[in-house]
Amino acid sequence: MMNNEQIVEALKESGMRITRQRMIVADVIADNDGASCKDICCIVRGNYT
Prior knowledge:
The protein has helices at 4-13, 20-31, 37-48. Helix content is 69%, strand content 0%. The relative contact order is 0.16. It comes from Butyrivibrio proteoclasticus (strain ATCC 51982 / DSM 14932 / B316) (Clostridium proteoclasticum).
């Protein structure tokens, strides 16, 4: 299981910018280990829209 900081570091190492949206998705992924892409999308949309 990756925590938020590890996810952000992996994004940085891949050359991606760390946007507000990516931080939100990283938080959701870190808090919901094993969630499907659809689940993550629903959580983000439900909590942050």
